[in-house]
Amino acid sequence: MMNSRGDLFGIFCSMSDYGILDIVKDALTLNLEFASAEVQAKRLELCNACPHLGKLIRDCKVCGCLVDAKVQFTKADCPINKW
Q1: Of the N and C termini of the chain, which has fewer Cβ atoms inside 10 Å?
Q2: What per-residue string of b and e applies to 18-49 under the rule 16 or more CB within 10 Å gives b?
Q3: pLDDT above 70: residue 14
Q4: Is the confidence at residue 15, as pLDDT, over 60?
């Protein structure tokens, strides 16, 4: 599946501005930034209360991201602006 940017891994974060290829690029260029534990916990709290959270694999039904991974990255954001 490809998203609008041509991201071949769009299935992982198809509607996110910061997807899997961005994460890999930032990791390879040593620019990967992690959110603080407090920020991650707050993001997870919001996702856990969201009706768009898939209960089986904890994926966002709006963007397709795996939320337990996505909340860790500073540049990531919620596709419906909850965080």
Answers
A1: N
A2: bbbbbbeebeeeeebeebeeeebeebbeebee
A3: no
A4: no
